[in-house]
Amino acid sequence: MTDYKLLVGQAKEMLEAEPWYASSFSNISALIMTMMENLNWAGFYLMRNGKLTVGPFQGKPACIHIAPGRGVCGTAAAKDETTVVPDVHEFPGHIACDGASESEIVIPIHGDGEVKAVLDIDSPVKNRFSPEDREGLEALVKTIEERVSWT
From which domain of life does this come (predicted)? Predict the structure, then answer.
């Protein structure tokens, strides 16, 4: 089980040391991959020119652009809500960047009153993300929103 208090605390320290999104998101992606079990991708998609564009991540190469409303990331961004998918093969319009992914969680990240990015985490295990994972990762995103610099 992931120690979310420790994960959020370490992310907070990283953001305080360097709040710029590119640096902090790179380290937070690595932190997530280190501290959570059974993951095959963890990273960020950034809203740019009306679509999500891959940002810092850990894992196999990813899809570069995702339109709002497409796939799990685009759906989470368009609906502006956390999206947990126990079985990605049952999600209409799922975008399979890594065929090994079986479950996924995506959490919107806000800045200036709008969705600026999403945190995307994939697992090769079905039903990987519990209510505790959702709560812990939403706490992580809240910490990011409070401390990140978008410029």
Answer: Bacteria
Q: In CATH, what number is assigned to the domain containing residue 92?
A: 3.30.450.40
Q: Model pTM?
A: 0.97
**What is the rounded distance in angstroms from the CA atom of residue 141 to the CA atom of residue 150?**
14
- The predicted pLDDT at position 123 comes to 98
Distance from C-alpha of 93 to C-alpha of 147, rounded to nearest angstrom: 33
Positions in the chain whose pLDDT score sits under 70: none
Domain holding 132, by residue range, is 4-147
Is 71 in contact with 88 (CB distance < 8 Å)? Answer: no
Question: Could you give the number of structural domains in the chain?
Answer: 1
- The whole-angstrom separation of Cα 28 and Cα 8 is 9
Model confidence pLDDT, tens digit, residues 17-33: 999 999 999 999 999 99
- For 4-136, strand residue ranges (E) read 41-48, 51-59, 65-66, 83-85, 103-111, 114-123
